[in-house]
Write a structure and sequence with these properties.
Structural class: alpha+beta
Low-confidence stretches: 216-225, 285-290
Strand order of the largest sheet: 2-1-3-4-5
Number of domains: 2
Radius of gyration: 29 Å
CATH topology of the largest domain: Rossmann fold
Order of helices and strands: EEHEEEHEEHHHHH
Helix content: 40-55%
Number of strands: 7
Oligomer: single chain
Mean pLDDT: 78
Distance between the termini: 60 Å
Shape: globular
Number of helices: 7
Strand content: 5-15%
CATH class of the largest domain: Alpha Beta
């Protein structure tokens, strides 16, 4: 992969800078320290998806949009990153860190799987693991841990550094990796089966607890009904009615939240469509004279794109929240039916 250029846009301080690179070896030099060499290197890797642990105090990446132009063979792409959201070229589709890491592996034509520390199953790695051998952090790599302390991402996996280098140096046995992947799949299926079995046992126990035989009152043989037993039944009925009423209130509350967030999603989609129209109106070059964008036009275009990032991020959060509300509502309805 060759990095052609990077654009760094600080939309809070209204500053934008583009750096072009030679396809051959590049060495960053300066007469003085603290001019930004480290920040530039960190920005390149940040835009590529690396989870940088330490940034210079005056370099607030949450106020910046980064865009890389990269090539690999015949393929050429623009990678844009804002916070933890990624865009490829001018596509409207937003990618999460995990989705972007899958795109990056496909772009580089590599596929790395490492055992997850929690699930103990082999899983696809993030961009930090893909780029691990190629990044040495000047702040974290000189304390005896050249790679392992440079990113928090590595804590997800077991023996991250060793496993990544095993892959790149082709030390890992492909047959063993394939078998490990198959083992992980079977273990996952087995775990799901055990969970279903445990759930059935739990339902069986709950059903048994509510299905105890009741002493039937023989009115013919007895002149008086057991008042204590009747009161117990009435208390049970009242308790059930109260529980059902509480569930109904929860369902109504969730329906209200779902309707509110649905309206917000609709409004955000309209706003995003409006910004997209404005963005497309500002072309990279004039269709008549082929002149490039002015600095002001470029700034306006990046401002619009930044607003779109914020909108898409909010849309993504709202959609997840809506699904959570719908899931909770279904659970409440299921609970009500089974009372």
């Amino acid at each position: 992969m060759i990095i052609e250029s990077i654009i760094i846009y600080d939309y809070i301080n209204q500053r934008i800078k583009k750096f072009n690179f030679d396809p051959r070896t590049n060495i960053f030099v300066s007469e003085l320290n603290t001019v930004g060499k480290s920040s530039l290197i960190k920005s390149i890797y940040h835009c590529l998806g690396y989870s940088i642990k330490i940034w210079p105090s005056n370099w607030n990446i949450n106020n910046m949009v980064f865009q890389l132009e990269v090539t690999n063979g015949d393929r050429k792409h623009l990678i844009t990153r804002h916070k933890n959201l990624f865009y490829i070229d001018d596509r409207k589709e937003i990618l999460t860190e995990k989705e972007y890491s899958m795109w990056l592996q496909n772009f580089l034509n590599i596929h790395i799987k490492i055992k997850d520390k929690k699930s103990k199953l082999l899983s696809d790695v993030y961009a930090s693991e893909i780029l691990l051998p190629f990044y040495v952090d000047q702040d974290k790599s000189w304390n005896g841990f050249v790679y392992s302390k440079s990113s928090d991402s590595f804590a997800r996996y077991n023996n991250t550094v060793k496993n990544v280098f095993d892959f790149y140096f082709e030390i890992a046995n492909k047959t063993l990796i394939d078998l490990a992947i198959e083992k992980s799949r079977i273990e996952m299926e087995l775990s799901d089966t055990h969970k279903k079995r445990d759930a059935l046992h739990l339902l069986e126990n709950e059903h048994s607890a509510f299905s105890k035989p009741v002493n039937v009152i023989n009115i013919i043989d007895k002149d008086k009904i057991n008042i204590s037993q009747t009161n117990n039944y009435l208390q049970m009925v009242n308790s059930l009615n109260k529980s059902v009423a509480d569930i109904d209130n929860d369902i109504i509350d969730l329906e209200t939240k779902i309707n509110e967030i649905s309206r917000e999603i609709t409004e955000l989609n309209k706003l995003n469509k409006s910004y997209n129209k404005k963005f497309n109106e500002i072309k990279y070059a004039c269709i008549y004279c082929n002149s490039k964008l002015t600095h002001e036009q470029s700034l306006t275009r990046l401002k619009i794109r930044n607003n779109q990032y914020e909108i898409v991020e909010q849309l993504d959060n709202n959609k997840r929240l809506k699904e959570e509300y719908k899931y909770n509502k279904e659970e409440k309805i299921f609970k009500k039916i089974n009372y």
